Amino acid sequence: MATQQYIWMDRKMVPEQKATIHILSHPVQYASGIFEGTRAFKAKKGTAIFRLQDHTHRFLNTARIARMNIPYSEGELNNATIAVVAKNRLGDCYIRPFGYYPVKGVGLTNPVKDPRVSVAIAAFPFAKYLEKKGGLTCKVSSYRKVSSSMLSPRAKLSANYMGSLFASFEAKEAGCDEAILLSESGHVAEGPAENIFIVNDGVLITPPGAANILMGITRDSIIKIAKDLGLLVEERNIHREELYTCDEAFFTGTAIEIEPIISVDERKLGGGKPGPVTQMLNETYMQVVRGEKEEYEDWLTYV
Fold this sequence. Notes:
By secondary structure, the protein is of the alpha+beta class. The protein contains eight helices and 17 strands.
């Protein structure tokens, strides 16, 4: 018999089957929700949430961008996240905070009349997103990454991810595993739900914030780890052609962790197999999240 799972909803632990909202609620009708993605891992000293404070801080920044007044402090949300992982007795898991207007009806202006915001936090076992033995095949999408002139690429807005969904559909219909989106200016931005890195002549290169990317926390972690390992890191615009000629490429993200890219638009990278820099960073990252690197211990919050 399956174990009962609970979701934190506005200061209450609610059985998951009762953690519901109305079909006509604003986030369902208009994608007006905001969210965050966090991971916990079985580490040396117990279950550890990776960079919890940074994820919660980004969640609250997304709320500010979206003009949503979250009625909970950063500390209360951190404690709620710890509590829901503990309540569900989880080890390796994915954590999803979600902020939304609980009002229902089909009027776009409903939140103006009733600006209350609710928050739910779910935690559940989760396999690595898009993991594929040997690496991913990718396609540069015909869809462009959303820019600040449309919505905010730096905020985890539910609405942003419809474009990501279109790009993923397109890539899979072409027989590929995932898409790569370009920015409005035509430079490489990111994957539908992942940041991207390339490696050329031993140099690690990733698009800058100006390329309309989400400022990923796993991305930031990899940059810091790479520098500590003595790698040269560049944050600069990447031209599409560089995807075809680089030595290595990989995605990063909370859900995907680190996943190598072995081809782009049917051009093989590095002989069509994961490269040594990608493998080194992946190995080190997994040691970090499992508490095997004392110098990164402050990134872990134990449950």
